[in-house]
Amino acid sequence: MKANIFNIQKFSVHDGPGIRTTVFFKGCPLKCLWCHNPESQNPKKEILYDINKCVLCGKCVEVCPQNAVRIENNVVLTDKNKCNHCGECVIYCIPGARQVAGKEYTVDEVLKEVIKDKVFYEHSNGGVTVSGGEPLIQIDFVEELLKKLKENNIHTAVDTCGTVNFENLQRVAPYTDVFLYDLKIMDDEKHKEFVGSSNKLILENLKRLSQIHNNINLRMIIVEGVNAEEKHIEETLKFIKDLGIKKINLLPYHDIAKHKYKKLNMFYEDHKMKKPTEEKMQAFKEMFESNNYNVKIGG
Amino acid sequence: MRGYTERTKKLREESASTQPSVSLERALLETEFYQKHYGTVETPVLRALNFKYLMENRKLYIGENELIIGEKSEGPQVVPTFPELCAHTIEDMTVMNERKYINFKVKDEDKVVQAEKILPYWESKSTRDRILASMTPEWKDCYAAGMFTEFMEQRAPGHTVADDKFYKKGFIEFKQEIEEAIEQLDFLYDAEAYNKKSQLEAMAISCDAIMIYGQRYAAYARELAEKETNLQRKKELLWIAGNCDVVPAHKPETYAQALQMYWFVHIGVTTETNTWDAFSPGRLDQYVYPFYEKELKAGELDYDKARELMECLFIKFNNQPAPPKVGITLKESGTYTDFANINTGGINPYTGENGVNDVSYIILDAMDEMRLLQPSSNVQISEKTPDEFLKRSVEISRKGWGQPAFYNTEELIQELLNAGKTLEDARFGGSSGCVETGCHGREAYVLTGYLNVPKIFELTMNNGFDKYTNKQIGLKTGKPEDFKSYEELYDAYMKQIEYMVNVKIRGNNVIEKIFATQMPTPFMSVLTTGCKESGKDYNAGGSKYNTRYIQIVGIGTITDCLSSIKYNVFDEKRFTMKELLLAIDANFEGYEMIHNLVLNHTPKYGNDNDYADDIMLDVFSNIRDNIRGRKTVCGGTYQIDMLPTTCHIYFGGVMTASANGRLKGKPVTDGISPEKGADTNGPTAVIKSCAKMDHTSTGGTLLNQKFTPSSIQGEEGLNNVSALIRSYFCMNGHHIQFNVVDRATLIEAQKNPEEHKDLIVRVAGYSDNFNNLEKALQDEIIDRTEQSFN
Hints:
The complex is a heterodimer of chains A (299) and B (790).
Chain A: E1 2-12, E2 20-25, E3 46-49, H1 59-63, E4 69-72, E5 75-78, H2 88-91, E6 98-101, E7 103-106, H3 107-114, H4 118-124, E8 127-131, H5 139-151, E9 155-160, H6 166-172, E10 178-182, H7 188-195, H8 200-212, E11 216-222, H9 230-240, E12 247-252, H10 258-263, H11 278-289, E13 295-297
Parallel strand pairs in A: 2-8, 8-9, 9-10, 10-11, 11-12, 12-13
Antiparallel strand pairs in A: 1-2, 1-7, 3-6, 4-5
Chain B: H1 6-17, E1 21-22, H2 25-37, H3 43-57, E2 78-79, H4 90-98, H5 108-122, H6 127-134, H7 137-144, H8 165-168, H9 171-183, H10 193-227, H11 231-246, H12 255-272, H13 284-297, H14 303-318, H15 327-332, E3 341-345, H16 358-370, E4 376-381, H17 387-397, E5 405-408, H18 409-418, H19 423-426, E6 429-432, E7 436-439, E8 443-452, H20 453-461, E9 465-466, E10 471-472, H21 486-518, H22 522-527, H23 531-534, E11 545-553, H24 555-571, H25 577-585, H26 592-600, H27 610-627, E12 637-641, H28 647-653, H29 683-691, E13 704-707, H30 714-730, E14 735-739, H31 743-751, E15 760-762, E16 767-769, H32 775-783, E17 786-787
Parallel strand pairs in B: 1-2, 3-4, 4-5, 8-11, 11-12, 13-14, 13-17
Antiparallel strand pairs in B: 5-14, 6-7, 9-10, 15-16
């Protein structure tokens, strides 16, 4: 059994408590407008190509064993049908204009990598976070990984968007110490517009999950122009009233990921989104706090 | 202005804003003395009488607001010279006056004095001249090529750290004990009795010298008090006089006297010779706490007063720039800092229990407030250290100026035990200088010089030929393009290492003898256990333990060079050795593909990757086994340290490009840190890689980590940095230090130094003003990988 993983990030301190390693799985059912890991959306491997760095030297064309790369009209094009993501073109690209997103791992390979930092987890009350993309799409793999992490006494966190069969959440719940559950927009019409699907399943799953798991943190992205409104916060408060949420992270939108869209030849609709002001974030924080929630701005 | 009280604000301002300058007072007094007395007595006695003459005749200085008194020369930031060790030429003096960085003002009339009175006597007599005259042509070639440096070229052996002796006894008692030892000498059967007698007599004279110095200060303070019209200050001057009546002749009775005792001794050691790393109080909180506790209980002292006095002591350290260095010695240690070190926290040396006490926190508070280059403040973190103390230390450290650095108590003790010391002595251990380990008060642990390991590999790649001096200086170990395997290359490198270590140690052996016979230090011998008992000098192997260190530089660079060749040439066969050599020769110009492959697509040290880290382990064990355990000529043992001070800049400057993609002239790696830009897996991977070497078989290792301020904010930031430290230490890491300044600030400071006068950064085992660093070193600090918490 193998999974497609695009990054194993060590010393990750914004994805759950303490010092952690975050395993980013590729593939996501959602398509959030602000997604800061656009390379996570496609479940398959991809080539990232930075046209600004490319000097059109043609080395990638020359070294590709599959003859998948060609230059046309001063742009390097990769034939997706031929490319097997072997990475030769990446190694031989002098200006570093090419990257492969995604690598296949077995459960034991991931375990071997993340267990290297066990000493740091122990001293910081940290552990391993599975994230993505949506990790629970690759449920068999993730379940097996979490099980083995628990066998090794490693704290586990699952960062999920909630758009999965409830059964998947149920399967990992016994091996998950904390869920980092994304709640994006309460207004379903807006949710459809900005996320690409309805929020019904997300809300329902959250409710059901709260009945079988007692350590759920909410992660709420706040984007000006999308959901940076009191109404959104009020509705959230209403919805989560009896769910026993332990902690809420309010994550202000930023556009640091903009460059990645270009490399993936994806369109980034940044004109629709703005950073929320610090005052606004603070006000939202206080709204949650006045309802006795433990809230933090940032991860 | 920084300072807990008005007094320390003023004193600190004076210390921080005074331009360092040179005084010839000491040189003139010494020359006068030598002209009269040289040849009339045995050398140790001559040195002791010289010391006494200096202490009897030097000018005294009590600054307007001072409570702790005594200066190495006429006032703050004035440095004496030591012509018996290094007789500066007029050109040297012109250079130190005019150079852009680390300059010292030298008066024109003093240059005349140097030319007419000092140089005619000392030329060719100073140890510097004698050393250079005694070295072999091979040594000189290698020295000129930057294969190694020589610590004793301009300065005396040092690295001495105080233990608790002089807080428990005064110099009257030390003198009595020495006199008793003289009486017990066996002139009938002990062939060394006469030499021992000279040495012990010299030690007794040096006790007189320091006591006379204290008495002179008592009298001077009274004289000033008589003239003083301000009643408060008059009272203070009489209080100072009262302290000087007690110390150094008697053991201190109060907290203030304990600090003053230390300071008199510090001035004594740094007057006797220009010891490397001055002198250090070591575990000050452990020794001074009983005085603090006693007075606190009696209602005679409170936190405020104790804190003010501690700050007064800190300012005293900062008033003493390192003696002016020139040439290669300046390059290996380009700083005003003289490396006096305070080790705070750790364990109680008497009981082995947690040693953190109220004075530990007073030292942290003073450190935080003063933000001075000197003393170099560090903390020892033991498994027993409370989190509160660790966090308070991290809180200060993350303010970005590099202090305190963090040391691992259990690992320090294990290092000392592995080197054959008793547990009792090891508990009195700590670090001094940058990261070097020793048993305080009972060991002479002397640094002898840095070894340019990446350049030894460069020689291997050129069949022993040096392209910097255009000379064959290494062994002819074969042309690398003829090597059939990685192992052949590695064998050749091991031969070059062995040869170079031997050239260095052969030189060391001569230098050690020169100091043993011609430059004894009887005062330092009084302070060091073993010298009285053996009747031998500190510089002649008299201490209970004697260690000579060779400092290894550039393990990151050499590891990546070997990994690059193993991976690219032999495993993956991406290019041939010949092509690589051509690329290196061309500084990779026109060889961009090879440069890309070695730089970006090769396993590197610092990523918790066994391919590269296993090579590091081979390199590390090989160097260590070449040096560790070898005997020195005065009965000591060789050990290694992994630290650079500023030498990695100099060493890189004498090198061609290297196989890992490092360009010609660029710095090699510092301490045990990975090559800049090579560590792409974050700080935990760096720490894991670094922890793979056996730190406990060294005398200290140095690890720099740089963080952006935003990445370690808040309570979580404190917890995470603390956890990093605890994790590294539980894997037996020796030392870690942090620079927390963002890149943008450093670049801006380089452009507008005037606006960033107060910017202090961590360099190697010490912090320095960013403005005092030469440009190459500034660039190097900017380039150190910035680890961000995500």
